Amino acid sequence: MSKNFKMVAKTLFGFEEMLAKEIRNLGGSNVVEGVRNVAFEGDTGFMYKANLCLRTAIKIIKPIHSFSVRSENDLYKKIYAMDWAEYLSIDTTFAIDSTVNSDNFTHSLYVSQKVKDAIVDKFRDMDGSRPSVDVKFPDVRINIHIHDEHCNVSLDSSGRSLHQRGYRTATNIAPINEVLAAGLLLLSGWDGQCDFIDPMCGSGTMLTEAAMIACNIPANINRKEFAFEKWDDFDQELFDKIVEVCLNRVREFHHKIVGYDKAPSAVRKALDNVENANLSEFISVERKNFFDTEKFTEGKLHMVFNPPYGERLSLEMEDFYASIGDTLKQKYPGTEAWFITSNMEALKYVGLRPSRKIKVFNSQLESRLVKYVMYEGSKKAKYMNKDEDKD
């Protein structure tokens, strides 16, 4: 059995607690929340499983060394001193990703260049030859993080960001990130126990992530490759076993997942992406304007959506958000409605009081995930019924 080692999962601001819960549920140990990251421990199989299953992780990195650093020369010497033959050979291609937050180091590209020089010089001094850099498709991706005078060196086990699930080939102008979509759904309490709707579904990301959560399908099952598959110690048999075990935990789903969009192009893209994810049996997408629709089920309905925004919409903001509120009030009783917006001013026009507001970020935009509970009948009647239930 392989030994446990430390890993760090990177995530979006506000998703740390949710990601920590995901890691614990998956079987990780010594889970510690940070800012936009969660540290944990597990073995090699767990690293494979974390990449495959975690919905709110952007990357899983494996720290291999840390040290204090005060200058460029100091950085070069300490990187040079590491035993790089343990991770690379002269036939291995590599790339460096650097993040710096330090008075001594101000340019991440320069840090990456200095680290690359140290690694290349180490091999050249030992063997007379050196590994090559491949920025786009490296065999090994090395992560450098400098905060003040502390430097962490890690191996990137994921490669491309884990939001790139592999099912989305067609997108709209401003598609919602898959990790963000999954996180919003989990924050909203979506668990697959009722019908679901995204009434402004765009290219269908929210629908697809909702179906994968409902069915407990691994988030990255459709992804073509993870960086760890190129590592020298990659265990194909173990990885295949992890995939098999995770797929055996897929559960049945007995409700509907429905998407609407008024743009024919969006509907086509959504249908393509749903098919790519092999989820067509669970999801239906129709060309409809949300403001002309009404609730399609008598039971509880869970709604999560990302209203469009842009220059044109800003001119119609008051009407647009007022129409959201009117449609929810008049056509969607018995619905728990959530949506994300970066336009705090626009929320005034919804005409409903949100029961929750959660701070999140959509790319670089500070946003709010807001919740509106639309009761069957009046709110007053709802509370009266609750009181009757207690008697």
TrEMBL record:
Pfam family membership, one: UPF0020
SUPFAM superfamilies: S-adenosyl-L-methionine-dependent methyltransferases, THUMP domain-like
Keywords from the named record: Methyltransferase, RNA-binding, Transferase
CDD domains: THUMP_AdoMetMT (cd11715)
InterPro entries: RlmKL-like_Mtase (IPR000241), RlmL_1st (IPR054170), SAM-dependent_MTases_sf (IPR029063), THUMP_dom (IPR004114)
GO-annotated molecular function: methyltransferase activity
Domain THUMP residues, every copy: 46-157
GO biological-process terms attached to the record: methylation
Designated name of the protein: Class I SAM-dependent RNA methyltransferase
UniProt organism field: Zobellia barbeyronii
Lineage: Bacteria, Pseudomonadati, Bacteroidota, Flavobacteriia, Flavobacteriales
